[in-house]
Specification:
Elements (H helix, E strand, L loop, with lengths): L7 E2 L2 E4 L3 E7 L2 E8 L1 H12 L7 E2 L2 E4 L1 E3 L8 H5 L3 E3 L5 E6 L11 E7 L14 E6 L8 H10 E7 L1 H4 E3 L5 E3 L16 E5 L3 H4 L1 H4 L4 E5 L5 E5 L2 E5 L12 H14 L4 H16 L9 H14 L20 H21 L12
Parallel strand pairs: 1-5, 2-6, 2-11, 3-9, 7-8, 11-12, 12-15, 15-16
Antiparallel strand pairs: 3-4, 9-10, 13-14, 16-17, 17-18
The structure holds adenosine-5'-diphosphate and L-MYO-inositol-1-phosphate.
Enzyme class: transferase
Keywords: ATP-binding, Kinase, Nucleotide-binding, Transferase
Catalytic activity: myo-inositol + ATP = 1D-myo-inositol 3-phosphate + ADP + H(+)
Length: 357
């Protein structure tokens, strides 16, 4: 595979199922969209990972399961990365949005799983090595043995806590269990990064988990914090006009992974996570990114990052904030502000608003 000296292919493996999302407000359906972290994650990684012409190639394999009722096979993300077909119906979530103005940290929606497709088994994963893997289940489909197989296949594994700690009550409502009590806990020392929202963080046990891997806690419009063994950092957010919070955490994780692929330290890569988290909340469902915006982001990365040694390619990670952290934030912020101005001026670009009545 082509690549610049010191580059080479950095193939990624994303494991988690696409789903149907039904968005409700006051019991009324206000949107029906493609969902599932795999859809949001591959959307960002396909858009912003470095490519061969940028010196490093980062192709992607997505392992996802849906039923014959899957309604979004021709949407861009599933069309590029087709799911495995099962007899069981596609996983489906109802997201009930509250009328109360959500604070940065309070849950802004109640999720209920109304259908669950089959789990993803270890044998469903390709039998080859990957530079990195993202475990991004939404409905318990990434089994502990599947995560273990990912860890064997991938040099670095990034995990979304929602893949590990979700439980579903008799009505399908999403609840959380403590990570320590799950079969995933013993795998933590072999995971590189664990991402949790501030709602999920208490179930992770950040102080224990940070001894094993780097923990990233996302804090909605306040950005995020990283905790590793021996240090921590706060990473500032980007401006956004929020119309639908769905997929913010997924898009964050993918932006973060892309930052590592570009050679950023973890704290700097979290800027790219925050950037794509903010981009996600500005759209209903899986965003179609503006091509000029993507080009602007890539030009910034090309100009600022020494890409000869992608962080994700090594055996150890650099967590610290670099000298160019603030400069990178400022440059990305300029692009984000341009995009949010455009969104305010031009609400005709397909954007509805799920967040306000
Ligand atoms: N209203 C917002 N404005 C700007 N950025 C946001 C906003 N909401 C979320 N984000 C970005 O997306 C990331 C993930 O959002 P968060 O709500 O914490 O995750 P989740 O979707 O898992 O609940 C945040 O860390 C932040 O970078
Ligand atoms: O909003 P977010 O937490 O990043 O991730 C969401 C999941 O929590 C939800 O279960 C799924 O239905 C959405 O499509 C999306 O993947």
């Amino acid at each position: 595979m082509k690549g610049a000296p010191g580059g080479g292919a950095l193939e990624g493996l994303v494991v988690g199922s696409y789903c149907h999302d039904v968005l409700l407000r006051g019991g009324r359906v206000v949107g029906e969209t493609l969902g599932g972290a795999a859809a949001f994650v591959s959307n960002v990684l396909d858009a912003v990972s470095p490519r061969a012409e940028e010196g490093i190639e980062a192709p992607l394999v997505v392992v996802s399961k849906v039923g014959h009722d899957f309604a979004y096979a021709s949407a861009p993300a599933p069309a590029r990365h087709p799911p495995l077909l099962c007899a069981a119906p596609t996983t489906s979530f109802h997201a009930q949005f509250s009328d109360a103005a959500a604070s940065a940290h309070a849950p802004d929606r109640e999720l209920r799983r109304v259908c669950a497709c089959d789990p993803i088994y270890p044998a469903d994963l390709p039998d080859r090595r990957f530079a990195y893997g993202l475990a991004v289940g939404v409905a318990g489909e990434v089994l502990p043995e599947t995560l273990e197989r990912m860890i064997r296949l991938c040099r670095a594994v990034l995990v979304d806590a929602q893949a590990l700690i979700r439980a579903f009550d008799g009505e399908g409502a999403v609840r959380h269990v403590t990570l320590e009590g799950t079969p995933y806990a013993r795998l933590l020392p072999r995971v590189a990064f664990l991402k949790a929202s501030s709602e999920e963080a208490p179930y992770i046990g950040v102080e224990t988990a940070r001894r094993w891997c780097c923990v990233i806690v996302t804090e909605g419009r306040d950005g995020c914090r990283l905790y590793w063994d021996g240090g921590e950092a706060r990473v500032a957010p980007f401006p956004a006009v929020q119309v639908d919070p769905t997929g913010a955490g997924d898009s964050f994780l993918a932006g973060f992974a892309a930052g590592l692929l570009w050679g950023l330290s973890a704290t700097d890569a979290a800027l790219l996570g925050n950037y794509f988290g903010a981009a996600a909340v500005s759209h209903v469902g899986v965003p179609t990114f503006n091509a000029k915006m993507l080009q602007a982001v890539k030009t910034i990365l090309e100009g600022k990052v020494k890409r000869c040694n992608p962080c994700i390619n090594g055996t150890t990670f650099n967590f610290e904030r670099s000298n160019m952290h603030d400069e990178l934030h400022t440059s990305l912020q300029e692009v984000a502000m341009l995009m949010s101005e455009k969104q305010e001026i031009d609400p005709a670009n397909g954007i509805g608003d799920i967040c306000s009545t």
